[in-house]
Amino acid sequence: MTKKISLFLLFILLVSNLISCQKEITRVSKPIDKNAVVDSTITAFQKTLLEQQIDSVFKKYKFNGSIAVFKDSLQLYRKENGFSDFKTKTKIDSTTIFAIGSVSKQFTAALVLLQMEQGKLNVADKASKYLKEFQIKEYENIMIHQLLNHTSGLNTFGGKLMFKSGSDFFYSNDGFNALGKIVETVSGKSYDDNVQELFKKAGMKNSSTGNIFEGHNFASAYLGNANNFQVVPNMPKRLGSKDIGTPAGGILSTIDDLHLWNNALYGGKILKPETLKQLTSKSAERHHAILGKMGYGYGIMMNTGKPECYFHSGYVKGSPSLNIYYPQSKTSVIILSNIADEEKGKSSTFRPHVEVKKITDNLENTILQLKSKH
User: Fold this and answer.
1) Domain span including residue 321
2) From which residue to which does the signal peptide run (predicted)?
3) What is 318-340 written as a DSSP string?
4) Could you give the CA distance from residue 103 to residue 265 in angstroms, rounded to a whole number?
5) How many domains does the chain have?
6) Is residue 180 part of a domain?
7) Which of helix, strand or coil describes residue 310?
8) Any domain includes 12
9) 131 belongs to a structural domain
10) Cα gap 217→163, rounded to integer Å
11) Which helix (H) or strand (E) holds 263?
């Protein structure tokens, strides 16, 4: 990786020198746009490097799924491999719909904040103001803000708090399912209806929830590997069950729809600037078992160092996913799959995702360094 980047830096230097020489040679011809030449050279380098590096991840892990990288509207990399249905040998393609697990949480967070923009709630409100289930001594002081950033102390609903609300971090699916109920209460509409409106606002035409999905391109989820697999039953309907819950992990989507979502959300088409800042501001810290130390906003994780990066992983049985966005370059990296060998553990399942994020983190840092010099 370092050698490739060093060679590229040399290449950029040569291009810059060539441009300078060209300007000295002639003053008659139209001036060369140095920035445009450098940008196109960087883009070519990105495409080449991503192809080499991510293709190697596909090969190394025999990755069954889809990975794409977009810089704003420009596709830098895309590859689909394997099957959406192992029994019928149906191949994964650009229209394949995956369960995205906890990537769903950013949609729920956005819905809560949209209700706040309409004056129907405030994130500083106590959840007990909207839900009878929270009107008990154990839960009465939990704020919506604390549910959004997993600092409520809630684990499984009905159980004792893990700690005093606001004093620590504990990841809670039940907390996000409670947020979904709050959205339903203040809007007077079902979560499914609310999120469908959000999809429409972002231009997402192929996304749904497990509850209402009626399409034919869903990637069945499997446990095991390509040679020894077991289908996860009752998918995608099981995503709406109490064990998972639609607001916490029940959304279905595609590579292209998540790309549209990233551009719409971070491009200011969903939330007002000050509201988006609330969603993306670090208000808690998470120590992820696989991805390490990170900041946490509202349904969004973030790098603690460089590059600036918003992301969230997702996992429901057989469906590991990762959605990444680099705001400085407006770059989306989306990784979706539909098989996981749980016997080897989640760390093994997410190795391809972690490797791709390392590749794109390093690339982002390099590109930003180059941009700062030109």
Assistant:
1) 64-372
2) none
3) TEEEEEEEETTTTEEEEEEESEE
4) 14
5) 1
6) yes
7) strand
8) no
9) yes
10) 43
11) helix 255-266
Q: Give the residue carrying structure tokens 């994964």.
A: 92
Give the DSSP H or E segment for 61. Answer: helix 34-61
Distance (Å) of CA 58 to CA 235, 332, 358: 25, 18, 15
User: CA 102, CA 175: separation in Å to the nearest integer?
Assistant: 12
What token pair was written down for 281? 């501001």
List the strands of the sheet with 339-340, edge to edge. 229-231, 222-224, 339-340
Q: Which amino acid is at 336?
A: L
Give the pair of three-digit tokens for residue 273.
């600037």
SS3 (DSSP) at 122: coil
**Tens of pLDDT, residues 134-190:** 999 999 999 999 999 999 999 999 999 999 999 999 999 999 999 999 999 999 999
To the nearest 10 degrees (0 to 180), the angle between helices 255-266 and 191-202 is 80
What DSSP assignment string belongs to 62-113? T--EEEEEEETTEEEEEEEESEEETTTTEEP-TT-BEE-GGGGHHHHHHHHH
Distance CA 308, CA 322 (A): 16
- Threshold 0.90, pTM exceeds: yes
Are 286 and 270 a contacting pair, CB within 8 Å? no
Q: Which residues of the chain have pLDDT under 50?
A: 1, 10, 13-28
CA–CA dist 256, 254 (Å, integer): 5
- The token pair at 348 is 């093994």
Q: Measured between alpha carbons, how far is 79 from 27 in angstroms, rounded to an integer?
A: 45
pLDDT digits (tens, 9 = 90+) for 256-299: 999 999 999 999 999 999 999 999 999 999 999 889 999 999 99
How are the residues of the chain apportioned to helix, strand and coil, as percentages rounded to the nearest 5?
A: 45, 20, 35
Residue 303 neighbours by CB distance under 10 Å: 21
Q: What is the token pair recorded at 66?
A: 């889809």
Q: What is the CATH number of the domain that holds 253?
A: 3.40.710.10
Indicate whether 30 belongs to any domain. Answer: no
Beta bridge partners of 80: 66
pLDDT at position 24 is 44
